Amino acid sequence: MRVLIVNDLAREGGAELQTFREAKLLRQRGHVAKVLTFDHGVASVDTDEHTNFPIRRSIPRMGAQQFLPDPTLVMRIRRVVREFQPDLIHVNNMWKTGVSMLRSVGEVPVVQTIRDYATVCPKGTAVDREMRACEGYATNDCVARCGISTFQRIQLLGLRSFNPQRARVVDQFLCPSSALAETATGNGLATRGLPNPFDFDVLVPEEERNTPGDTRDYLFYGNISKRKGIVELLLAWEAFAASRPDARLLLAGGVHEDFASEIDTWLARVPQVEHLGRLDNPAIMALLPTIHCVVVPSLWQENYPNTVLEAQANRTLVIGANRGGIPELIERPEWMFDITVDGELLACLERTWDLTDEEYEGAVAHGYDRVTRDNTPEVFMDRLLGVFDEVLARRAS
């Protein structure tokens, strides 16, 4: 089978990691896979395995792509499709290409994996102004309940225009999180859940793992942003660390513009916090075995965060907000909290501190067992190729 895998970016976050991971797994199964991206942060590439057309990631452009195709972009995508001749196109994020992508696929069957809540929410967070979770624009009054901005109202119009076109072109929608799959289905995009794979080859071998140091370290990694719950985490940590001088909170990742002007003040105010800056995935994999607990305190609804998968695969304890796809990964209620309720995150942190060695091993074994059951590359590829075969069979008939 020849599969063209499409994604906006070539390197940044979870969607990009999964895009190239899928291409690798397809090739290992004997299929021919090519990745098509539009990443302005990467040089132009045009090889048998990867083509990149750099496109600036501007908000006006992405908004316009929900309404009108770009003739030059359509021509470029069609050239790749014509030359590669895929049996099937698997699209991930396509905010940069939008209608242009839909106009470029021709008669080739299309599967799309929905990677975030921006598919059903003009804010991209699927939470209202009171930080309550919502079910998307089709069932929610975004203006009255969420107080969306003028630009977000344009985004809402874009979703109402683009999603029906998307539903006509795409043969099957997938989503790693069953929570987002259900929400997408309720917004007119019939979607099936398909959990992401984890590449166990990226784990640091047991004999090379570092041991924890003199402090007991906690880790937040990813986009350091208010909507990721960083303020709530720092407030809880301030109370938690006050009586625990050997506790340390490590922050790894770039600082979002919504927090850039405040981070230095917070770091000076809250004890035992260190910002490590951006770390690539190998550095994260080397760090995780030394960490006592990873914290995922997102205010917005996450799809299927790699941070949880990676920590669980490393047998590191994870606690997280009880919204979006996080509960599907953590499963146990004692390691989840309502991020909007004062004291719940702090109480969860305190539970992680008081664990005996035996209790800790039992907690991390549960997460590790779930990853090895649901997220192996073999299980993922069997399920994904099953979907591809179904789509091709429907088209053939």
Please give the count of helices.
15
How much helicity do the residues have? 40-55%
Label the overall shape: globular
- Strand composition percent: 15-25%
Number of domains: 2
Q: Which structural class matches the secondary elements?
A: alpha/beta
The named CATH superfamily of the largest domain? Glycogen Phosphorylase B
CA-based gyration radius: 21 Å
Give me the side-by-side strand order of the main sheet. Answer: 3-4-2-1-5-6-7-8
Contiguous runs where pLDDT drops below 50 for at least 5 residues: none
Q: How many beta-strand runs? A: 14
Q: How widely separated are the two ends?
A: 18 Å
**Can you tell me the CATH class of the largest domain?**
Alpha Beta
Biggest β-sheet description? 8 strands, mixed
For the residues shown, what is the average pLDDT? Answer: 93
User: What is the CATH architecture descriptor of the largest domain?
Assistant: 3-Layer(aba) Sandwich
What is the CATH topology assignment of the largest domain?
Answer: Rossmann fold
Q: What are the secondary-structure elements, in order, as H or E?
A: EHEEEHHEHEHHEHEEHEHEHEHEHEHHH
